[in-house]
Design brief:
The longest helix is centred in the C-terminal third of the chain and has 24 residues. By secondary structure, the chain is of the alpha/beta class. The chain is globular and about 55 Å long. The strands form 4 sheets. It has a 7-stranded parallel β-sheet with strand order 3-2-1-4-5-6-11, with helices on both faces. A 3-stranded mixed β-sheet has the order 12-9-14. The protein has one domain: Rossmann fold. The protein contains 10 helices and 14 strands. It binds NADP nicotinamide-adenine-dinucleotide phosphate.
Length: 294
Amino acid sequence: MIVLLGGSGFLGSRIQNYLQTKNIAFVTIGRSNENNFIADFHNQTAFMKTLFSLNPSVVINCIAATDIENCEINSEYAYEANVYIPELLANCQNYQNFKIIHISTDHFYDKIRSSEEETVILNEYANTKLLGELALSNENVLIFRTNFFGLDEANRGRGLIEKVIKTVNKGHVFEAFTDVLFNPLFVDDLIKLIILSTEKFNSGIFNIGSSSYCSKAKFVAMCFEKLDLDMNLYEPISSENIKNRVKRPRKMVSKLDKASSQLGFSLPSLEDTFARFIKRDKAILSKRKKLDEF
Ligand SMILES: NC(=O)c1ccc[n+]([C@@H]2O[C@H](COP(=O)([O-])OP(=O)(O)OC[C@H]3O[C@@H](n4cnc5c(N)ncnc54)[C@H](OP(=O)(O)O)[C@@H]3O)[C@@H](O)[C@H]2O)c1
């Protein structure tokens, strides 16, 4: 049995859809009533009772405090999701034998083709995500450091592409950074690797992304073009133009050699993974448009 934590989030809701499509059994545990089991993560004993009663083979942890600005000013928000919940999961592994697939981030990297050892901590989001990884460093944990894109199927407007669409729908200009580089994967490509890993488990920390990279500005331009958005509302700018932002890395480009050699993953180019996004998610967009017109 797969137990999914963070199933109400951007990645988690797409994992749920994927598992349903493939008829793979799973349950979700979370703090809201959207989940199969509601848990109070502050109550360790109650959480353990719920988790152990499900006898999971694998727990996929997508819980995180992902609002970078909020992580900086609200340490309780950042620590609870990014550190204490991983600590709680590691503690649970002391009592029951199950594997964990933990989702982490490329936010530790500020050099093109950074290997798993080359971390740079520029803000509290990165700091707490790294502490969460440390809490989970054991032979029954697989950690994917990644970045992903796609539409938010839960329709809550999360992720870069939803931000672009929302801004353009309001008739506003979207400013995209020319100096921030990344190598993300289409979320469904990432999910396939996560689910494959539930069957063929390996422990360790692995970078997962696309084999090529580009600037956020180039990526957003690709979205404008392929999603038929009004190019007049596209504006490439330098991230330095935005003042009073929490400091972030600019070269979030991960080196994928370890995942290729040790997990046997053949990671797609950004062009290929983006093409799958257009093929799959454009249908979601047209459904949304039809619903709006209705
Ligand atoms: N989105 C990206 O582009 C991106 C890039 C790189 C890495 N990542 C990593 O990918 C993973 C998934 O990210 P995402 O974008 O799917 O995140 P998300 O949409 O912000 O969802 C976060 C999930 O965590 C849950 N959560 C947050 N704080 C919690 C708490 N204190 N107690 C219990 N549940 C809590 C939320 O539940 P509620 O619905 O109850 O709030 C939600 O289900 C994270 O580990 C993130 O660091 C994301």
